[in-house]
Amino acid sequence: MEALQFAGEMPVIHRSLLLDDNLKGVVLAVVSSAFIGASFIFKKKGLKRAGSSGARAGVGGYSYLLQPLWWIGMITMIIGEVANFIAYIFAPAVLVTPLGALSIIVSAVLAHFILRERLQKMGVMGCILCIVGSTVIVLHAPAERTPSSVEQIWYLAVQPAFLLYTVAAIAVSLVLMMHCSPRCGQTNIMVYLSICSIIGSLTVMSIKAIGIAIKLTLEGINQAGYFQTWVFAMVAVSCIIIQLNYLNKALDTFNTAIVSPIYYAMFTTLTILASAIMFKDWSGQSASNIASEICGFVTVISGTTVLHSTRGQDQPPNADLYTPLSSKIFWHTQGNSELGKHKGDDLLSGDFVAVVRQDHFI
Can you give the C-alpha Rg of the chain in angstroms? Predict the structure, then answer.
């Protein structure tokens, strides 16, 4: 009888421990979102100051490394990412990941008051759609099966399905970095953020492996002797460097209130996809969960499209280099072949018109 009572008390104790762990995870995730949201603002301020005195990050400059504000933002982001990393140890991803949307709210509010970046009504709608769609995907995502060693994660990582995803992710990222970024990175927000999100999904998989290795090592099962641990560490460091580089380019080129929600939506979606492929969590899902995830994907795509459409309302990044030609100047350039008829207008000489034509149209 005492054995039965003890056995019956174990689930209660177990549930209590789980609730305590979940509470720790929620608190850490909220703190993480606050720090990450604020880091966008500090880094953007630093990038702006660097751009006013040197080459902008959006065109390949690195003068922002000399700006204290950028480093404050960098340190703030690191603190947020560390808190987020620890939150995943205590709580499941379906509880931690949706709270990342709080960073969007934090950055949007701070950008409104500090950076004077106004988010239009359609941008607000797109932001809401991205958050709702990503939340639906996360809430209906498959339950994680946590491996008990780094070797188990390595076995999952070298399975054909995830190897195919990894090769595809690297190939797409290389095309975006080598071909698309130099040509349309300054005008298409999806180029930089796609690189960050695709590489970010690989970062999370590596970070999970490192987290499990650290947790097991602290429990007395040393994982430092496995070469897989160091491979995951090198992959994580490489991916983080690439992410930060292109995130800086995106922040320097586009409106922060638009960068944050698009990056969150794409990063969350691809991370869930990579995790589902690697850990084979899609098997055994109900039809309702699959339908909900599809609806979430459609909602995210819709929100991203709406947010992307508001990009045209922002001032072009190179607007300070040239001013638009007036209709009279345009009429003169078109009629430049008949200069004799326009000498009396006393607007522009033929030589000046030729300079304008060459500067703007050649």
Answer: 25
